[in-house]
Amino acid sequence: MKKRISFTIIFLMLLGVSVFSQTRKEKKIAGYTVDNYEVECLGTGSEGTQLMKVWGYGKKPEDAVIHAKLNAVHAVIFKGIFVGEPGCMKKPLVTDPGVEEKNQDYFDAFFKPNGEYLSYVAVSGEGVRESIKVDKKTYKVAIFVSVQHGSLRKKLENDGIVKKLGAGF
């Protein structure tokens, strides 16, 4: 009985070490972030908006739509959108490498479920355009969204995340 308790304690300790030993960078490399997505710019609109087709993944189509909205805002801020129509704002808002890691707490709060990022993205048109069941537990959904590029930039400028336009002159 004593051996069994000792074995259980050792097993739980090893399990705990392996689960919590990954750093944020290791988790990012392993694919635990939103960096793996597809975004296509369909055009620009009035007042600094950008229309995009974006894909998201989820256990249910509704979860995939939420994920797609997050992907759209994340792409505008960090990745840029290089596929799509001419005239689209292709460069990301954050061009300084390391800003995401340096401001991790800010972006964790910004992108939390029902977070502030939802203020800058809206589903355009009829909602879900394409839905694919990838496997038994995963859906891949494409939606058209409009991202308020200009307002998002102002927010990041006011919060000190990106430099204001014209600040370097």
The average pLDDT is: 78
Largest sheet: 4 strands, antiparallel
Count of individual domains: 1
Class derived from helix and strand content: alpha+beta
- Model regions low in confidence, pLDDT < 50 over at least 5 residues: 14-34
| Straight-line distance between termini | 74 Å
Strand content: 15-25%
Helix content: 25-40%
Alpha carbon gyration radius? 20 Å
Description of the structure:
This protein is of the alpha+beta class and 169 residues long. The chain has one domain. It is 39% helix and 25% strand. It is built from six helices and four strands, in the order H-H-E-E-H-H-H-E-E-H. The chain has helices at residues 2-20, 24-30, 61-79, 99-102, 104-110, 149-158, and strands spanning 39-44, 49-58, 121-135, 138-148. Strands 1-2-4-3 form a four-stranded antiparallel β-sheet. A hairpin with a 4-residue loop joins strand 1 and strand 2. The chain is globular, with a radius of gyration of 20 Å. The model is unreliable at 14-34 (pLDDT under 50).
SSE order and pairing:
Blueprint: H1 2-20, H2 24-30, E1 39-44, E2 49-58, H3 61-79, H4 99-102, H5 104-110, E3 121-135, E4 138-148, H6 149-158
Antiparallel strand pairs: 1-2, 2-4, 3-4
What are the defining features of this structure?
single chain, alpha+beta, 4-stranded antiparallel sheet, 25% strand
Gist of the model:
With 169 residues, the protein is α+β, with helices and mostly antiparallel strands. Helix content is 39%, strand content 25%. Strands 1-2-4-3 form a four-stranded antiparallel beta sheet.
